[in-house]
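$ run holo --ligand "adenosine-5'-diphosphate" --emit tokens
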Amino acid sequence: MALYCSSLGSQVPRAGRALLAGACSRGLSASSSIEASPLLRSGGFIGGRWVTVAATFPVLDPASGTELHRVSDCGLPESREAVTAAYNAFQSWREVSAKDRSVLLRKWYELMIQNKEELAKIITAENGKPLKEALGEVAYSAAFLEWFSEEARRVYGDIIPVPMKDRRALALKQPLGVVTIITPWNFPSAMITRKVGAALAAGCTVIVKPAEDTPLSALALAELATQAGIPAGVFNVVPCSRQNAASVGEALCTDPLVAKISFTGSTTTGKILLKHAADGVKRVSMELGGHAPFVVFDTANVDQAVAGAIASKYRNSGQTCVCSNRFLVQKGIHDTFVKKFAEAIKKELHVGNGFEASTTQGPLINEKAVEKVEKHVSDAVNQGACIVTGGKRHSLGKNFFEPTLLSNVTTSMLCTQEETFGPLAPVIKFDTEEEALAISNSANVGLAGYFYSQDPAQIWRVAERMEVGMVGVNEGLLSSVECPFGGVKQSGIGREGSKYGIDEYLEIKYVCFGGL
Ligand code: ADP
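-- output --
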């Protein structure tokens, strides 16, 4: 196997060589920038009160590995308390008029916007993403509260014509009840509001169990919910350590007072929660893993495709479920695309601490995440892939990884079979449209997919045949609060955001008026 990828004119060492580890990241300290934050909290938030327990768990700065803060490690008593609080609050929240719920959500949205810098700093500190991206997340996150404050007032039922003259039939939409919401660390704020906005607008009450890596954003949202006047018990947060996640998760998901489970995270954890839901026949929303194909046809505008590839692959250092995970490039455009993609990576991407203005690539969330990228790179290289650029940990510290581009990739390699969730772009060369679709659709998941083409007939064919919940056509970033987010196959069940998102938290009740 060649040490260098000469066909593309680059000379880069193979992966696995000289992995630099351990060094601490230079630059601003994350803890110093949030420890004075007025939104920093340490306890759980249950029934409108801050609840502390003796046991705590650390929240780490992914850039340096140092401890940012300690948070109460809630357990079964707090879980039960939260379910009871949410259940009691539901009895009155369901009676609050849609207009009044709308006003409260709008107030919460406005407070998020007023506090956007503080919220963004907390996200960058605990998640590592560049401050500019964190500010973007706050805007996106707040927009869900704004959107659902508007949707709250547009929940209509139906009057159904029936053949019996002495009857009238109605379909009423009613809130489900208490919802358990379990969220991941990659969007510590937006993954919460996307669910909570819809749930509260519908008249449900919620218990949020945030990811153990990023509980501070969830607690900051709770503080703003209080300031907005969201009634006690409507929005509860139960933070806990990874050790307690399974037991707290089980308690929150199996309690008979809980009507629904809404989860964003890995497919593995999603399957556990689906089993909990099955026992109680509860409603679910599941937003699980992806393995997005990014297809560049010979008909593509190559510069547009490169710009889309950078945006869709390297945002949040590759740690989003809609990030492109495998690049399929047709043979006529292949070499040009790879060359230009490599140039753009070197020119536009800057690895660093998220608090530094020039940074576009922060650290990965933890060392386990880095190890997965390393494993995917070394497996690919061992099977004949070429490193075009990057390929190893970055000298800034053990959680930093160089933006990486691999060519000569085949479908037998691990990186084309499972989600990497890191800054690795593997490129497979293909011949025909049929072949590209067959590879794209071979995955057992289907969240996002992207393709670049200037041929209208091909655009329709591929958009319709790609087995995913969301397709970007000549576009690498597709999330928007107005549009339905969700997947097919093992990527999940249900849709979030958009006019459809609120239905996930509503039950349809048929009322038959007889004897008229
Ligand atoms: P990751 O491995 O990237 O952390 P997970 O799907 O494991 O992805 O985590 C997403 C969320 O699911 C987190 O809030 C985590 O604490 C939670 N979680 C993990 N395992 C379980 C479980 N067995 N039951 C309930 N929640 C869980």
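-- notes --
The chain has two domains: 43-288+491-510, 292-480.
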